[in-house]
Write a structure and sequence with these properties.
Elements (H helix, E strand, L loop, with lengths): L1 H6 L17 H6 L18 E2 L2 E2 L8
Antiparallel strand pairs: 1-2
């Protein structure tokens, strides 16, 4: 999923990786809004947000 994101020209994109478990504590302190953004079916999950509104999470690469 990351490879696909990095290969596309997406101006102004911000990618935040949210590790599970204790490793995610530091990133949640910086970006507390991601606390409830979890994986779907234990798969890497993307949350696409535009103008402060997020679409439904996805595990698909389009």
């Amino acid at each position: 999923m990351l490879r696909e994101i990095h290969h596309r020209f997406l101006p102004n994109k911000v990618v935040i990786l949210h590790p599970t478990g204790p490793a995610g504590t530091a990133i949640r302190k910086i970006s507390p809004f991601i606390e409830y953004q979890t994986m779907l079916d234990d798969q890497p999950t993307a949350y696409i947000c535009i103008d402060f509104a997020c679409q439904q999470p996805t595990t698909e690469i389009h």
